[in-house]
Design goal:
Distance between the termini: 68 Å
Helix content: 40-55%
Strand content: 5-15%
Radius of gyration: 29 Å
Number of strands: 7
Shape: globular
Order of helices and strands: EEEHEHEHHHHHHHHHHEEHHHH
Length: 454
């Protein structure tokens, strides 16, 4: 097999040490081409110096947990090409599996050009991604504290969280503050409810606020509420840091060949060309600042016009994939990377499996999550979701709709075009023609002829 990368190295990444293998002709005669380095910063600097001394130009390394990140950044700073490899793709090491053999196997495969690098966005997007993932952890921690408050209320047989839509809403928090302030009379607590509440009547809420007040559960309720509000303050600080990072994101100019630009579908009648209005929530873990203008500057288009995506959703998408769509060959490759395409596991001419590949991707999770809401809309994508749901079930329909959304995101970011809402009548006519063609084909196979009614 011909050698593609003659100056390639392989690194087996570990928690406490890294094993490195370089080509045999890169070291002096009698010296080993495999060395072990520690995981401290001083050891990483020595590792990079040794690679430069051996005239290594490209390095393949396994994506082991998060231990590869400091080493990857050191290699990038030294202007070495670092190829991050999925450990599942190179796990079949011949012979006994050891760290020493792993790095030799990586170096050998990489020298033959058989390894594909994993996706890693630019450094400014990586900073944004770290903050968004931290914000997601804070949001989940807020949800846990709300569950602790609900559990404390259940122990006291207080059904406030059943009488209001959200315990962490304005009414719920006012009543909780009054309870922790010493108020126990249901008639007084009910006066704090919002007049617009429709989940329960005044009498039902008053009955829900009668229970067994116990000091130990009130203590848990107080601490959970304090933790919840502390996490909200932390989230506000995180949102402020997000704004600073967004301002530093570099916008790459679009380079599109007009011959490669696909033809746009027919648009619907423009009802009103107004943007989605940002809703500032007084309570909860949503965004308190409108970042739509900054996101439009970064993306070049307004992605919030896509059905089902709001400002927070667009922020999650950009923080995970960036705005450079040239990293994928086309929209199909992008959807396959997200794990939204059917598999094609075939052996001996027989299809063994066509299930979608299991991929843990935050963008794919987001698109699958918004798919049911899209299916309830009166748009062409809502029609598509309902058709798929009736034919292949809700789970597969969510995946199919998520793939459509992914194709839209790719197209808008790649070609910098405004979102076009497809005309529902044209889409339904296309479905009608497809059904007629299918019916004519079935009739012909059965020996019949379809005649159009005059």
């Amino acid at each position: 097999m011909p050698v593609i990368h003659s100056h390639a190295a392989g690194i087996d990444v570990g928690a406490t040490s890294h094993w490195v293998c370089v080509p045999e002709d890169a070291v002096a005669e009698g010296q080993s081409s495999v060395r072990e380095f520690g995981a401290f910063t001083k050891d990483l600097d020595e590792l990079v110096e040794w690679l430069l001394k051996c005239q290594v130009k490209t390095v393949a390394m396994e994506s082991t947990s998060v231990y590869w990140i400091p080493l990857f950044q050191k290699l990038e700073a030294a202007h070495l090409e670092a190829v991050l490899v999925n450990a599942r793709h190179v796990r079949h090491v011949p012979g006994r599996k050891t760290d020493c053999k792993d790095c030799q196997w990586l170096q050998r495969l990489h020298s033959y050009g058989l390894l594909n690098g994993s996706f890693r966005p630019s450094d400014d997007i990586c900073c944004l991604r770290s903050l968004m993932r931290h914000r997601d952890n804070l949001s989940k921690a807020c949800g846990q504290e709300v569950q602790h408050m609900q559990q404390a209320l259940n122990y006291m047989n207080i059904h406030l969280h059943h009488a209001v839509s959200d315990l962490n809403g304005e009414t719920g928090l006012r009543i909780l503050d009054a309870i922790l302030g010493g108020e126990r009379e249901p008639k007084e607590l009910v006066k704090l409810r919002d007049p617009q509440i429709s989940r329960s009547t005044v009498e039902e809420m008053e009955a829900a606020l009668r229970g067994d007040w116990r000091e130990e559960h009130l203590f848990v309720l107080r601490q959970s509420l304090e933790n919840y509000r502390h996490l909200l303050k932390q989230m506000e600080v995180c949102d402020g840091e997000l704004e600073k990072v967004l301002a530093k994101v570099v916008v790459n100019p679009a380079t599109v060949v007009e011959a490669e630009r696909p033809k746009n579908p027919p648009a619907a009648e423009p009802k009103s060309k107004r943007q989605k209005r940002f809703k500032k929530l007084k309570a909860g873990t949503g965004l308190k600042r409108d970042l739509s203008a900054e996101l439009t500057r970064i993306c070049g288009v307004d992605l919030t016009r896509i059905i089902g995506l709001n400002v927070l959703g667009v922020l999650i998408v950009i923080s995970e994939i960036g705005v450079d769509m040239s990293r994928w060959r086309n929209a199909k490759a992008f959807c396959a990377w997200l794990g939204l395409c059917p598999g094609n596991k075939i052996s001996g001419g027989k299809v063994l499996s066509s299930h979608t590949v299991h991929v843990v991707n935050r963008v794919a999770i987001l698109l699958r999550t918004v798919a049911p809401a899209v299916g309830r809309s009166d748009t062409w994508l809502g029609i598509f979701h309902r058709r798929m749901r009736a034919r292949i079930g809700p789970a597969a329909a969510n995946t199919a709709t998520a793939r459509k959304l992914a194709c839209m995101i790719y197209h808008l970011l790649q070609y910098k075009e405004e979102y076009i809402d497809v005309d529902c009548l044209i889409y339904q006519e296309k479905i009608r023609k497809s059904r007629i063609a299918k019916l004519c084909k079935q009739a012909e196979e059965l020996g019949f002829e379809v005649i159009k009614k005059q």
